[in-house]
Amino acid sequence: HELLAAHAEDKKTRVTLRNIHTTNTSDEFVDHLIVEAGTLPNDDLFYRLKDDSANKGIIDLDLFTEGRPQPAHGESFHLYRVGDVSGSRDIHCALLDSLRLCAQI
After folding, report:
1. Domain limits at 4?
2. Cα–chain-centroid distance for residue 13?
3. Can you list the positions of beta strands (E) in the chain?
4. DSSP letter, residue 3
5. Are residues 30 and 49 in the same domain?
6. C-alpha of 24 from chain center
7. Which residues are paired to 6 by β-bridges?
8. 43-101 pLDDT tens trace
9. Long-range contacts of residues 1-4, Cβ cutoff 8 Å, at least 24 apart
């Protein structure tokens, strides 16, 4: 759901939500409202490891989108950017990226 509005009413918060799939809206009264608005990439570890990795952290996007294995380079470890290392992304994106990369191992 997408949060469209939030207003304090009595001792509750009235929220207006839109279903992102159907576009239907609904109003709900809630005790608490938590909004997740994205994160900054947590890529420090990636950049510390990148130069020592066999693939220098590079993903072959054509192979990735085709579901084919990434090329094997050298004898060092391979490093891939997934999840919030790539930007403001949720856990579902990280899992899907990881599944696509690891399915061919």
Report:
1. 1-35
2. 28
3. 2-9, 12-18, 25-30
4. E
5. no
6. 25
7. 15
8. 899 999 999 999 999 999 899 888 889 998 888 999 998 877 766 677 788 888 889 88
9. 3/33, 3/35
Distance CA 71, CA 63 (A): 9
Pair 48, 98 in one domain: yes
Phi, psi at 20, each rounded to 5° = -70, -15
- Structural domain count of the chain: 2
Backbone angles phi, psi at 91, to 5 degrees: -60, -30
Q: Are 46 and 57 in contact (CB under 8 A)?
A: yes
> Does 30 lie in the same domain as 68?
no
Q: SS3 of 101, please? A: helix
The residue with tokens 């839109």 is 18
* 27 and 50 part of one domain: no
Q: Identify whether residues 19 and 48 lie together within a single domain.
A: no
H-only helix segments in the chain: 44-50, 61-66, 91-102
